[in-house]
Structures are given as structure tokens and as C-alpha cells.
Amino acid sequence: MVQFRKFDIDGRKKEKIVFQNQMLHYGLYVPRPEAYFFGDIPWHWHDEFEFGHILGGSMQYKTNHHEFILHEGDGIFINSGVLHYLHPLKPVEDVRLQSQFFDRSFLAGASGSILDIKYIAPVLEQRQLDAVPLYCSDAGSARFLEKMREGAELSIKGERFFELRLRSLFSELWEIVYSWAMDENKKGTGYNTLEDERIKQMLSYIQEHYNEKITVEDIASSIHISQRECYRLFQTSLGETPGEFMVSLRLQKAQELLRYTDKSVLEVAVETGFGTSSYFGKIFKQYHHITPKQYKKLNVDKSDRPVQDT
């Protein structure tokens, strides 16, 4: 069973992964096709580990420490709690992404078990290991990617004992992930976890107040730093200014309202902090080369139900 993925992000910019089986804590997802046509998948993070696989086209992955370009056949591992951003590359209509999410209990069982303490926690705590690209041209990565494909196939078919086979398969992959973490540990390099937490806190503040008239001073004051330090953190972590991030967030929220509700363009403009429909239309067309009304007409399917892969 494959589930379409609507990016459900809470007030802290943390994505909420909903597993199809709450007793398994594993999910195979693909974003809705229209998600690729107008805009990026915004900065977010989730508690689950992620194996991503590019089934078509090309995708730019960014964490606040690394940047990768992945093409058809490539994949990526995203560690738990890592802030990341996805940008589909042209032609965007060719881009297809498949993601497998799982939490620590999927492999380790109960929290605090010997498996959790010995093999899962060391990876989760190794913050230098934010993401690992998997290029299909590399022999070692190709074997890893093949195992990922096997896992997706097991999930899609859903045959008897697939849960056991899936967990066994992912345990094999986890041995490799664990070795990556140990390699990073040997390097002895580290990231400033305080800066990572500060940028997350500021993103959370913007998420909670994006529909209001907020300034850089407001954002900086929310975590008791100067405006200059606020600008520095945004530039070094995200490569953009607070204002640029706020516009991209407002546009993302506007897209969701246009796609999934019957609200008018003016209502969307007011609700997302743009204020007037004329200003909203100007910014929307500047970024997406299409008007809000034209975009709304293109998105007639407002359902978000699971679909069976055939």
C-alpha cells in the first residue's frame, strides 16, 4: 500500500508522519503529484528516519549543513530530527520521489531496549550524520538502493509475513547506517547544536505568526538574540533571509488553501499575511509564473485518501 503524502507540518515546522499501521511504525509514501509543479518542499524535520528514492527526474536536497543533487535512481538517508528542504529540478513534471519512514521502535521494539541503546541511539545522537546521499553509480550505494527497492516492494504487495521480512531487511540496512555514524564519530568533528536549535525555534515562531505583521526584530526577540545574529543564523543555516523564508512559507500556506479549500483569493491573501489580493497575486505570479486563480483551477482533486499502487 502506497500513501499519497500531504506535508502536514505542525507549529514547530516538524512534519507529522501518520503511519498506515500504528502497530508497525513504518510507512511508504509518495507526495501528491501536484506538489512538484509549484514550489519546493519547505524546511521541515521529523522524528522518524527516512530513506528517500528518486524514481524520476532530479531533486535538490538541502540540510542546514549539506547540499546534494540527486537524479533518477539515486537515494538518500535522512537522520531523525534533521532540518531539510527539497527542491524539484526542471522539468518538474518528471520528478517522482518515494520515501520510506520508520521510527526507532520499528527496529528496536520498546524504548530503552538493548537494541535501542546499542544500535539506534548512537545513530540518532550522531548529529554530524544529518544525511547521506546514495548514488546509483556507486557500487556500494547501488546495493543499498536495491535493498530499499525490495523494502518498498514488500510493503506494496503486503503479503503474509511481509512485516517480518521488512524488519529483517531494514535491520541489514541499519548495520550500514550504524557504520556511517561510527565513521563520523571517529572524525571527531561536530556541529553547533545550539545554532541548530535556535534556527528551529525561530522557524517555529514564524510558523505560529506568519499570518501577522511580524518583523525581523520580532523573530530575533523570540529567542533573545540581536537582529544581526538572526540574519547570520538564517544565512548560514538556510541560505536565505528571514523575510525570504517568511514569503516562501506564506506562499506554501496559500497553495494549500487554494488547493484544498473553497476560499476566495482575497480570503487566502488575508489569512496568509499578504493583506491584499493584488499584492498576493503579484508575489504568487513572481514565484510561480501563474496567478492564484489559475492555480486554483488546476487543482480540482482535494481528496487526501490512501491509494492502492497498481
TrEMBL record:
Answer yes or no on keyword Transcription.
Answer: yes
Residue ranges annotated for the HTH araC/xylS-type domain, each copy included: 200-298
Q: Which Pfam family is one of this chain's hits?
A: AraC_binding
Q: Which InterPro entries match?
A: AraC-bd (IPR003313), Homeodomain-like_sf (IPR009057), HTH_AraC (IPR018060), RmlC-like_jellyroll (IPR014710), RmlC_Cupin_sf (IPR011051), Tscrpt_reg_AraC-type_HTH (IPR020449)
List the GO molecular function terms: DNA-binding transcription factor activity; sequence-specific DNA binding
Q: Which keywords does this chain's UniProt record carry?
A: DNA-binding, Transcription, Transcription regulation
The record's section on SMART domains has: HTH_ARAC
The record's PANTHER family line, in alphabetical order, gives: ARAC-FAMILY TRANSCRIPTIONAL REGULATOR, HTH-TYPE TRANSCRIPTIONAL ACTIVATOR RHAS
Q: What is this protein called?
A: AraC family transcriptional regulator
Q: Which organism is it from?
A: Blautia pseudococcoides
